[in-house]
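Problem 12. The chain below contains 383 residues. Write out its predicted structure in token notation.
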Amino acid sequence: MPTNVTHEYANAEELYVRAKTIEEKIAATEEMIRHAPKHKGAEKLLKMLKQRLAKLREDLEEKREKKSGRGASQSFAVKREGAVQVVLIGAPNSGKSVLMGKLTAAKPEVADYPFTTVEPQPGMMQFEDVQIQMVEAPAVVEGSSIGKGLGAKPLSLARSGDVIAIVADASSDLVGQVSTILNELVTVGIKVNKKPPAVLIERRPSGGLEIKGGNLVEGGEIKVKQMLLDHGVHNVVVAIDEPLDAEEFTEALEGRVVYKKAFILVSKCDSIGADRRIQDLKWEFGGEFKILLTDRPAERIKREVYENLGLIRIYTKPPDGAPAKRPLVLPKNSNVADVAREVHKDFANRLKFAKVWGSSKFPGQQVPKDYVLQDKDVIELHV
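Solution.
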């Protein structure tokens, strides 16, 4: 039990320990959140409680759906189309629908009241010869992860999408809006613009606990073993290659955290006081996020969005033939072997060499498999 807690908190924690059902655990956790200390030193405790409550609600919904025989309804799903799926997520009336109408052919309902959008709204953004799927998520509010507003469903879109675009409204506190969205994402196990921890966990049917690099975890190898046993893991190989705190190792062990690329789209940039709020946003988040202003022509916004997706277009061509009209779209820093695998999974093994036009020193230069390609390169594969 944490120190300096109220009598009410201690009673709620005791109720949680004695709880037999998910419903009882949810009720006790809600009481613990209500009575948890609110000072800065208790932020980690409150974060843990909210994450627990979000997971308990997921478990309860799954239990109810299994009992009823219906499919899971705790999440939204949109079939992925185009080169990449970008999920627009933000507070009520943050300008997501207006932005969707500006960048895509979608016609979302636009109104000045909260929660106008209650279902995912997909649309296709055409940038030159690439199609990017944009999905407007219903609004997220503080506490969405634990059932407030429309609940955690909008956040599930961010979890399944490829990239997250946080839409924030410059007519009000931008830093507060972005902070709220980030807190809600973290609570449901989504971390943005961060690398997964360098830890490998391979469970096996026997062999006990084999731990390499346990001294890199807060508390050392003894703490790692205890966390493994607390999670019912008795046979596993663990390899840790960088310093981790106990929370980071637990996240890797449970496998609930996903890591997503994200950027910020600022709407209503002509509002009174917007310039100051935008500067505050850049000061607070500019080092971690690319911040794009949407008071620009649509084509400029599309280009900036595309450039922040970390993609390149590669055009294949046959010997003595013309380049394909439609490109292969791959992550930046992809090489010749990656293109060969995209053409066919076994093609890379048979590849002898390739010729490249564009980024090469001279047109049609012969390059090896590990040659790193650039946007709009033309490539000719030889097997």
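Discussion. The radius of gyration is 24 Å. Students who got a different answer should revisit the alignment rule from Section 12.3.
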